[in-house]
Design brief:
heterotrimer; A alpha+beta; B mainly alpha; C mainly alpha; A: 20 strands; elongated; C: mainly alpha; 0% strand
């Protein structure tokens, strides 16, 4: 599998402010790759670097092996779906979609035909002669998609394209986008702050914060094996327990849980001393075979799950998620319960 | 400049509703009596007979319009034919005003774009610099221009001084001088509406165009200009209309060969050779022309691009 | 890689634009200090023409003209501003009413009609009703076309002042007049001042309309300058021009500073919480 986008030590500064601190990523061809992070983490900056709207301060960006850092945006075979679509208000839907082809010098009949194809692909053929202002948000978004795909770019960049849509539409579009990527085989680089979106659509995800890539991996890797507190906390819910690590070897750490129980678990860290342990709420069960002892504060009925909010001795909060709520007798507030860690439930973080 | 048709929406009543009458009465009275009434009166005058010493006799006739459009030979006894003299003057004025507008557009658009794309802190300063000359008396500005381009004026002196030309460029009393004068008088009127339009322009559109392989100039041609068109048209109107009826530039900078509508009208009200009905008629024709242009503008606005 | 805002050559054209706009004015200002009597040769730096303006043979005439211009502008600006303020209150604070659209068109009418047409119409009007042309006719004409110029900044400012302030005042037992005087007017003041300054300059600078309706004995500064220029550009004209230039610049700067400061004043719309 060839590398579509190869970013090495990319740094982007605006005067004294640095937006990206040496980011390195390798995005494979035909991959649905997501840049995930809170606002201000640098994901949009990185996207704009690839597109060419920002100039890289130092580092390299290669597109299928070719260094594109000095190329103007209109010379890069990448196309962007903008967050607010940026549809040309004075052109019809067809003319919008055909615009990239027109700029490439494609003749009118060919342009028109291809635009028609694109509109069919996004199920908007009947709107071909409308003006953008006459379309709904979801329809505009699909026109923006068709417009960006029409020139058959090697890489498609999507800048939070679903954030302006309401929930149902967003969920439907996620499926459509994923299918589109699989059909066309074009590399998609998708930017979002919504982790559910990232998890459902991506082949791989790069979690970013403060201008750095915190972790890159598949959805499963990131969820089940986060490397640090940020990733563990940003994706899904987790319990973070402060622990003292006694020893680490071959990816396994030996440590003492609060309450005294000693365990060995997978580790993202190679050092000993004070660290955080990540335990997903759904990996804890109530059992007499207890690794931890806790007192129940509150129980929340969530339909599918039961959420048990408790605290360990010493007031460290801990949360459990128990599935199949209907079949469980909920513990009472104030009750003392024993928590059992499933195999591989705990993970030592690097920080 | 207020654009016709863009009435700001009223706030809900805060107790002034019952005072609408007294509040608007002065405005209606003043503008009604001293502007609307006079214009109507002028329309009437265009159908009156001229008195030999200036002024009018209240005798209704089409003589003034006849004088404008029709010639019956030197002694008035030949068959009626189209009188081209005054139409030619109008035509020349339209043409002069048009050229001045184009000149203003060529220089005004880049200027407006440049200022609108400055960072917020310096933008105000640039705007300030552009608007100061606008507030200087038009007469003073025209006189200054005349002083500058005269045969023995500083422009010619310095051009001769550095050896670029041998004799002075005959700039005054030419069509070129008048055009320069009009251009100079109304340039800020072109810059400001375009500036306002560019300031509201969504630059993501330019990015999208670049993303889709458009060069800088293709983007300008295909995307920017169509989207800021209302501002451009507004600027053109604000230059064209005053230029059409301009008096100072043609009078001070031009000569007999550059006679324009403004001078034609002015002439009718001077001294005893004046012809008030004719002057009123010419003014009416000018106003009709201006109204057509403004109507065109209003229609272009209504058909304008919505975001 | 320059951004999408950059176009090569636009900076140069902007500079050209500014040069074109300022060059004639700069030249006149420089030559107003010309020591030589001939306007073509430079005779060293001198203030003699400024002295000439105030003490020379034409000083009386220009002085009278300047005085006329000044008093006219003062009265026209003040009257127009008062009228425009009242109109703005009606247009923007009384809700929709029949004739609102017509009123708006009327207020903007002087901006739409070419100046020379207004000049002719006004002359015809005064002549018909037998009103002798002179100071009063000029004043009435000035007030009329100053109204829209005063209206623009006042309306702009008023739009930005939420009606909620006055409603709060009346909720606290203020009468309509008190709410206006103590709450609205202070907030409106920058707009009113801007409007006044604008009207003042417009009146001071007017030539065409004034020239038509002034009649024989009257002169304002612009008409006096015009008359003098018709006989040839003399150095004292340049001194007067430079002085008028300075006055204009001062007024624009004043209006600009008033606007700048007012942007920090609390007249912004509520952000809905």
């Amino acid at each position: 599998m060839s590398i579509a986008v190869d970013i090495r030590d990319a740094v982007k500064s605006y005067g004294p402010v640095t937006a990206l601190h040496g980011v390195s990523l390798a995005i494979a061809d035909n991959e649905f790759f997501t840049l995930l992070g809170p606002s201000g983490c640098g994901k949009t900056t990185l996207l704009r670097l690839i597109a060419g709207f920002e100039t890289i301060t130092s580092g390299e960006i290669r597109l299928f092996g070719q260094n594109i850092a000095q190329l103007e945006p209109n010379h890069r075979p990448v196309n962007t779906v903008f967050q607010q679509y940026a549809l040309f208000p004075h052109l019809t839907v067809t003319d919008n979609v055909a615009f990239g082809l027109k700029m490439q010098g494609v003749d009118a009949p060919t342009r028109r035909a291809r635009a028609g194809q694109m509109l069919e692909m996004v199920h908007l053929s009947q709107f071909a002669d409308r003006m953008p202002a006459q379309l709904s948000g979801g329809q505009q978004q699909r026109v923006a998609l068709a417009r960006a795909l029409a020139p058959a770019p090697k890489v498609l960049l999507l800048d939070e394209p679903l954030s302006a849509l309401d929930l149902k539409l967003r969920q439907a579009m996620r499926v459509e986008l994923k299918q589109l990527q699989e059909e066309t085989g074009i590399t998609f680089v998708f930017v979002t702050h919504d982790q559910e979106e990232a998890l459902t659509m991506s082949d791989r995800i790069a979690v970013m914060s403060n201008g750095r890539v915190q972790q890159t991996g598949t959805a499963r890797e990131i969820y089940e094996a986060p490397v640090n507190r940020f990733v563990a906390d940003f994706i899904g819910e987790t319990n973070l327990l402060q622990v003292e690590v006694e020893s680490v070897s071959q990816g396994l750490a030996t440590l003492t849980l609060p309450g005294g129980h000693r365990i060995t678990c997978p580790s993202a860290s190679t050092t000993i001393g004070r660290h955080h342990l990540s335990i997903r709420p759904e990996r804890l069960t109530i059992s007499p075979d207890a690794d931890l002892l806790a007192t129940v504060d509150r129980v929340v009925y969530l339909g599918t799950d039961l959420q048990v909010i408790a605290h360990l001795d010493g007031s460290q909060p801990i949360t459990l998620r128990l599935q199949n709520a209907a079949r469980i007798t909920p513990p009472a507030p104030g009750q003392r319960i024993g928590l059992h860690l499933e195999e591989g439930a705990a993970r030592l973080l690097a920080d | 400049m207020a654009a016709p048709g863009n009435i700001p929406s009223p706030a809900s009543d805060t107790g002034y509703r019952s005072l609408i009458g007294p509040l608007l009465l002065p405005t209606w009275a003043v503008i009604g009596i001293f502007m609307v009434l006079p214009v109507l009166l002028m329309a009437v005058y265009s159908f009156l007979t001229k008195e030999f010493r200036g002024g009018v006799i209240w005798d209704f006739t089409l003589a003034a319009y006849d004088q404008f459009f029709v010639t019956r030979g030197l002694f008035g006894d030949e068959p009626a034919q189209i009188e081209w003299t005054y139409i030619a003057i109008f035509w020349r004025s339209i043409w002069q005003a048009g050229l001045a507008t184009i000149l203003c557009l060529l220089i005004g658009f880049p200027t407006a774009w440049f200022i609108a794309t400055r960072p917020a802190q310096t933008r105000g300063l640039w705007l300030f610099l552009i608007t100061i000359p606008y507030w200087v008396n038009l007469l003073i500005r025209t006189v200054s221009l005349k002083f500058l381009i005269r045969d023995n004026g500083p422009l010619n002196e310095s051009l001769m001084g550095i050896g670029l030309i041998d004799g002075p460029l005959p700039l005054v009393n030419t069509n070129l001088a008048v055009q320069l004068g009009l251009f100079y008088s109304y340039l800020p009127f072109m810059v400001l509406p375009i500036y306002a339009a560019v300031e509201r322009y969504n630059f993501a559109l330019s990015e999208a165009a670049a993303d889709l392989y458009a060069s800088r100039w293709a983007t300008l041609r295909e995307i920017v200009l169509p989207v800021v068109k209302p501002g451009i048209i507004g600027g053109c109107i604000l230059v064209f209309v005053p230029s059409l009826g301009a008096f100072l530039a043609p009078d001070l900078l031009g000569g007999a060969k550059t006679f324009m509508i403004g001078s034609l009208i002015d002439e009718q009200f001077k001294g005893s050779q004046g012809n008030w009905p004719f002057g009123a008629a010419v003014a009416m024709i000018l106003m009709t022309l201006v109204l057509i242009v403004i109507l065109f503008y209003a229609r272009a606005q209504a058909r304008g691009v919505t975001r | 890689m320059k951004g999408v805002r950059h176009y090569p050559g636009f900076l140069a054209l902007t500079i050209l634009c500014l040069v074109v706009l300022y060059a004639p004015l700069a030249v006149v200002a420089v030559y107003s200090f010309n020591g030589s009597a001939s306007i073509t040769e430079w005779g060293g730096f001198s203030l003699r023409w400024y002295a000439d303006v105030f003490t020379g043979p034409e000083a009386a005439r220009f002085g009278q003209a300047a005085w006329n211009s000044l008093t006219l502008a003062l009265m026209a600006a003040t009257t127009a501003t008062a009228i425009a303020t009242a109109a703005a209150l009606a247009m923007l604070r009384a809700g929709p009413f029949r004739g609102r659209q017509a009123s708006f068109a009327l207020i903007n009418l002087p901006l739409m009609v070419p100046e020379i047409v207004i000049a002719v119409a006004t002359l015809i009007f005064f002549s018909t009703i037998g009103f002798t042309t002179g100071y009063l006719t000029i004043l009435l004409a000035h007030i009329t076309f100053c109204i829209p110029f005063a209206y623009l900044p006042i309306a702009a400012r008023l739009e930005g002042v939420e009606g909620t302030y006055e409603q709060a005042a009346r909720d606290l037992y203020a009468s309509r007049a008190q709410a206006f005087r103590l709450i609205l007017l202070p907030l409106l003041m920058p707009g009113v001042i801007s409007g006044w300054l604008l009207a003042f300059i417009i009146s001071l600078d007017d030539f065409i309309i004034t020239n038509f309706v002034k009649g024989a004995g009257m002169e304002t500064l612009p008409t006096a300058i015009f008359g003098s220029v018709k006989q040839g550009i003399k150095p004292n004209i340049m001194a007067i021009s430079t002085l008028m230039l300075l006055v204009s610049v001062l007024f624009v700067t004043a209006a600009y500073l008033v606007n700048r400061k007012s942007r920090q004043a609390p007249a912004t719309k509520w952000k809905s919480s």
